[in-house]
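[DERIVE C-ALPHA COORDINATES]
===
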Amino acid sequence: TDTSGYFGVDNSTGANDRPYDTIVLPADGETYAADVTCSFVIFDADSDYCTAVVQYSINAGATWQTPTTTGSLSNLTTSPQGLTKTFVWLTRADLPDTDISTIRMRITVYDAGDSGPADTTQNFRIDNQRPAILTGVRAAADLTGPDTGVYLTWSSSSAADSFGYYIYRSSTTDSRVSSRISSIMITDTFSYLDTTAVRGDSQIYYVVVSDKMGNLSDSSALWSGPNPT
Protein backbone atom coordinates (compact mmCIF):
# COMPACT_ATOMS: atom_id res chain seq x y z
CA THR A 1 0.00 0.00 0.00
CA ASP A 2 1.33 3.41 -0.94
CA THR A 3 0.21 6.40 1.11
CA SER A 4 0.37 9.99 -0.07
CA GLY A 5 1.59 12.91 1.99
CA TYR A 6 -0.83 15.49 3.27
CA PHE A 7 -2.98 17.23 0.73
CA GLY A 8 -6.01 19.49 0.97
CA VAL A 9 -9.50 19.50 -0.47
CA ASP A 10 -11.06 22.94 -0.47
CA ASN A 11 -14.54 21.77 0.45
CA SER A 12 -17.06 19.07 -0.28
CA THR A 13 -18.31 20.75 -3.45
CA GLY A 14 -14.84 21.14 -4.92
CA ALA A 15 -15.20 24.94 -5.07
CA ASN A 16 -12.56 27.33 -3.81
CA ASP A 17 -13.52 29.74 -1.05
CA ARG A 18 -12.10 33.20 -1.64
CA PRO A 19 -9.83 34.58 1.09
CA TYR A 20 -10.39 38.06 2.47
CA ASP A 21 -8.69 40.39 4.93
CA THR A 22 -9.37 43.12 7.45
CA ILE A 23 -6.82 45.90 8.03
CA VAL A 24 -6.08 46.62 11.70
CA LEU A 25 -3.26 49.17 11.32
CA PRO A 26 -2.86 51.90 10.10
CA ALA A 27 -6.00 53.12 11.82
CA ASP A 28 -8.36 55.69 10.37
CA GLY A 29 -7.70 59.23 11.57
CA GLU A 30 -4.33 58.47 13.18
CA THR A 31 -0.96 60.10 12.39
CA TYR A 32 2.19 58.10 11.62
CA ALA A 33 5.77 58.79 10.59
CA ALA A 34 8.93 56.97 9.49
CA ASP A 35 8.70 53.15 9.83
CA VAL A 36 5.01 52.30 10.27
CA THR A 37 4.07 48.86 11.59
CA CYS A 38 1.00 47.65 9.68
CA SER A 39 -1.16 44.65 10.52
CA PHE A 40 -4.07 42.83 8.92
CA VAL A 41 -6.05 39.65 9.50
CA ILE A 42 -6.47 37.02 6.74
CA PHE A 43 -9.52 34.77 6.71
CA ASP A 44 -9.78 31.71 4.45
CA ALA A 45 -12.28 28.90 4.92
CA ASP A 46 -9.90 26.56 3.10
CA SER A 47 -6.77 27.57 5.11
CA ASP A 48 -4.85 28.02 1.85
CA TYR A 49 -1.51 29.79 1.70
CA CYS A 50 -1.98 33.34 0.46
CA THR A 51 -0.11 36.30 -0.98
CA ALA A 52 -1.00 39.85 0.04
CA VAL A 53 -0.76 42.82 -2.32
CA VAL A 54 -0.44 46.14 -0.50
CA GLN A 55 -1.01 49.56 -2.09
CA TYR A 56 -1.34 53.11 -0.84
CA SER A 57 -2.97 56.24 -2.20
CA ILE A 58 -2.12 59.89 -1.51
CA ASN A 59 -5.24 61.24 -3.20
CA ALA A 60 -8.07 59.48 -1.35
CA GLY A 61 -8.09 56.50 -3.70
CA ALA A 62 -7.92 58.17 -7.11
CA THR A 63 -4.63 56.39 -7.90
CA TRP A 64 -2.66 53.67 -6.11
CA GLN A 65 1.05 52.98 -5.63
CA THR A 66 3.19 50.14 -4.26
CA PRO A 67 4.84 50.96 -0.90
CA THR A 68 8.38 50.12 0.19
CA THR A 69 7.97 47.45 2.86
CA THR A 70 9.85 44.92 4.96
CA GLY A 71 8.39 41.64 6.15
CA SER A 72 6.90 38.78 4.18
CA LEU A 73 3.73 39.28 2.14
CA SER A 74 3.78 35.88 0.39
CA ASN A 75 3.27 32.26 1.42
CA LEU A 76 1.14 33.44 4.36
CA THR A 77 -0.69 30.88 6.47
CA THR A 78 -4.41 31.36 6.96
CA SER A 79 -7.34 29.90 8.89
CA PRO A 80 -11.13 30.21 8.85
CA GLN A 81 -10.92 32.05 12.18
CA GLY A 82 -8.33 34.53 10.86
CA LEU A 83 -4.59 34.96 11.39
CA THR A 84 -2.88 38.30 12.00
CA LYS A 85 0.04 39.32 9.77
CA THR A 86 2.38 42.29 10.09
CA PHE A 87 4.80 44.21 7.90
CA VAL A 88 6.57 47.56 8.09
CA TRP A 89 5.97 50.40 5.64
CA LEU A 90 9.12 52.50 5.19
CA THR A 91 7.22 55.71 4.57
CA ARG A 92 10.28 57.95 4.35
CA ALA A 93 11.38 56.01 1.26
CA ASP A 94 8.07 56.76 -0.48
CA LEU A 95 6.98 60.03 1.12
CA PRO A 96 10.12 61.91 2.24
CA ASP A 97 9.72 65.31 3.90
CA THR A 98 5.96 65.37 3.35
CA ASP A 99 2.85 65.82 5.48
CA ILE A 100 -0.26 64.30 3.90
CA SER A 101 -3.54 63.70 5.71
CA THR A 102 -5.41 61.83 2.92
CA ILE A 103 -3.42 58.57 2.87
CA ARG A 104 -5.31 55.34 2.30
CA MET A 105 -4.09 51.74 2.26
CA ARG A 106 -5.68 48.75 0.62
CA ILE A 107 -4.72 45.08 0.89
CA THR A 108 -5.88 42.28 -1.40
CA VAL A 109 -5.12 38.63 -0.59
CA TYR A 110 -4.77 35.85 -3.16
CA ASP A 111 -4.70 32.09 -2.81
CA ALA A 112 -3.77 29.69 -5.59
CA GLY A 113 -7.20 29.91 -7.18
CA ASP A 114 -8.70 33.30 -6.53
CA SER A 115 -8.43 36.70 -4.89
CA GLY A 116 -10.60 38.12 -2.22
CA PRO A 117 -12.16 41.59 -2.00
CA ALA A 118 -9.69 44.33 -1.08
CA ASP A 119 -10.01 45.93 2.34
CA THR A 120 -9.39 49.68 2.20
CA THR A 121 -8.83 52.12 5.06
CA GLN A 122 -10.27 55.56 5.30
CA ASN A 123 -7.90 58.52 5.58
CA PHE A 124 -4.92 58.53 7.92
CA ARG A 125 -1.96 60.90 8.05
CA ILE A 126 1.73 60.47 7.28
CA ASP A 127 3.88 63.26 8.73
CA ASN A 128 7.49 63.00 7.57
CA GLN A 129 7.94 66.74 7.20
CA ARG A 130 11.14 67.96 8.81
CA PRO A 131 11.19 71.18 10.83
CA ALA A 132 12.96 74.13 9.24
CA ILE A 133 16.62 74.77 9.98
CA LEU A 134 17.06 76.61 13.25
CA THR A 135 18.36 80.18 13.20
CA GLY A 136 19.91 82.44 15.77
CA VAL A 137 22.44 79.93 17.16
CA ARG A 138 25.21 81.58 19.16
CA ALA A 139 28.12 80.21 21.19
CA ALA A 140 30.52 81.90 23.58
CA ALA A 141 33.06 80.88 26.20
CA ASP A 142 31.81 81.06 29.78
CA LEU A 143 34.74 81.84 32.10
CA THR A 144 32.86 82.74 35.28
CA GLY A 145 31.32 80.69 38.05
CA PRO A 146 31.94 77.08 39.02
CA ASP A 147 30.88 75.67 35.62
CA THR A 148 32.99 76.89 32.73
CA GLY A 149 32.62 75.81 29.13
CA VAL A 150 30.93 76.93 25.94
CA TYR A 151 27.50 78.44 26.39
CA LEU A 152 25.04 78.05 23.49
CA THR A 153 21.80 79.91 22.88
CA TRP A 154 19.32 79.76 20.00
CA SER A 155 15.96 81.07 18.89
CA SER A 156 12.76 79.07 19.21
CA SER A 157 11.92 76.84 16.24
CA SER A 158 9.40 78.20 13.77
CA ALA A 159 7.79 74.75 13.36
CA ALA A 160 4.31 74.61 14.86
CA ASP A 161 4.89 71.05 16.10
CA SER A 162 8.47 71.45 17.33
CA PHE A 163 9.14 69.43 20.46
CA GLY A 164 12.79 69.75 21.43
CA TYR A 165 16.42 70.20 20.46
CA TYR A 166 19.61 68.14 20.18
CA ILE A 167 23.11 69.64 20.39
CA TYR A 168 25.96 68.43 18.17
CA ARG A 169 29.65 69.37 18.14
CA SER A 170 32.40 68.97 15.57
CA SER A 171 35.94 70.16 14.92
CA THR A 172 35.08 70.60 11.23
CA THR A 173 32.52 72.58 9.29
CA ASP A 174 30.91 69.36 8.04
CA SER A 175 27.85 68.59 10.18
CA ARG A 176 27.79 64.99 8.91
CA VAL A 177 30.79 64.12 11.08
CA SER A 178 29.52 65.87 14.20
CA SER A 179 28.69 64.04 17.45
CA ARG A 180 25.69 64.61 19.69
CA ILE A 181 26.72 65.98 23.07
CA SER A 182 23.28 66.47 24.66
CA SER A 183 22.41 63.19 26.37
CA ILE A 184 18.67 63.85 26.14
CA MET A 185 16.38 66.03 24.07
CA ILE A 186 16.25 69.60 25.40
CA THR A 187 12.62 70.63 25.80
CA ASP A 188 12.47 73.29 28.47
CA THR A 189 15.04 75.92 27.46
CA PHE A 190 16.83 77.51 24.51
CA SER A 191 20.34 77.23 25.92
CA TYR A 192 23.00 74.66 26.69
CA LEU A 193 26.35 74.71 28.53
CA ASP A 194 28.98 72.40 27.07
CA THR A 195 31.23 71.61 30.01
CA THR A 196 33.09 68.86 28.14
CA ALA A 197 34.78 71.17 25.62
CA VAL A 198 38.58 70.95 25.58
CA ARG A 199 40.29 74.15 26.62
CA GLY A 200 42.19 75.98 23.92
CA ASP A 201 40.31 74.43 20.99
CA SER A 202 37.59 75.89 18.81
CA GLN A 203 34.54 73.77 18.06
CA ILE A 204 31.63 74.03 15.65
CA TYR A 205 28.21 73.64 17.27
CA TYR A 206 24.95 72.63 15.60
CA VAL A 207 21.40 72.57 16.94
CA VAL A 208 18.87 70.15 15.43
CA VAL A 209 15.10 70.50 15.93
CA SER A 210 12.86 67.48 16.57
CA ASP A 211 9.10 67.62 16.10
CA LYS A 212 6.55 65.52 17.99
CA MET A 213 6.75 62.75 15.38
CA GLY A 214 10.54 62.44 15.69
CA ASN A 215 11.32 64.19 12.40
CA LEU A 216 14.67 66.00 12.62
CA SER A 217 15.65 69.23 10.91
CA ASP A 218 18.88 69.70 9.05
CA SER A 219 21.72 71.05 11.18
CA SER A 220 21.46 74.69 12.16
CA ALA A 221 23.73 77.35 10.77
CA LEU A 222 27.11 76.71 12.37
CA TRP A 223 28.77 78.93 14.92
CA SER A 224 32.35 78.65 16.05
CA GLY A 225 32.69 78.72 19.83
CA PRO A 226 36.16 79.37 21.27
CA ASN A 227 36.72 77.25 24.34
CA PRO A 228 37.85 78.93 27.54
CA THR A 229 41.62 79.08 27.96
Remarks:
- The chain is about 0% helix and 40% strand.
- Residues 6-14 have pLDDT under 50 and may be disordered.
- The two ends are 94 Å apart (CA to CA).
- Helices lie at 91-94.
